[in-house]
Amino acid sequence: MKQQIIILIVLIGFWSCSSPQKVEVNKPTNESKVEQPKKEEDIEEEVEVRRPFSGPKYQNDSEYFRAVESGESENLTFSSEKALLITKRKISANIQSLIKSVSDRYAQERQVSDRNQFKEKVENLTREVVEQKLSHINVIGEKTYKNKKTKIYKTWVAIEIPKQELKKEIANKMEDKFTADEKKEMDYDKEKFEETFDKELEKQKN
Predict the structure, then answer these.
(1) pLDDT at residue 25, as a whole number
(2) CB 174 within 8 A of CB 188
(3) Ramachandran region of residue 9, left (φ > 0), alpha (ψ -120 to 50) or beta?
(4) Quick count: other Cβ atoms within 10 Å of Cβ 108?
């Protein structure tokens, strides 16, 4: 009996020594992962966005005042009308800025008795001329886009006004509106005013 027990113990010890041991394999962590290069299709592309009417022919030059703006609406007609209105405001502001410089310069170079009154009159008359010009404005470009998701229309409009034509109309308006006494007080000379206008145009180019 003792002999059988001893044999049994020996066999159990043999089996436990020969049983396969589990080997723990370290799984790679995030830190040990090698970052793979992105595939070409996964790389974000930068797309150039070009605004309509952005070329030189739609910008101010020596011959024309120009402006480009856009308007948005759920209604196609309103989109176009809104764009035209905003563009007119922009070109009007550009012209008024020039006229302010012209009237300032003219008042400094001439013997104007009341400079503030002169500048105010010139700017008011210019506003009248510009409003008249804008009522028959020359639209040189118009494009409309529709957003498929929002169903919103976006219209771009480009307009222009000839500079020399505008100069003549402003000078003629002043010639007609100013009385003889006002011309004397303001030392107004039509040709001199036109010369000053041209000088400021040249100054803007530089």
Answers:
(1) 47
(2) yes
(3) alpha
(4) 10
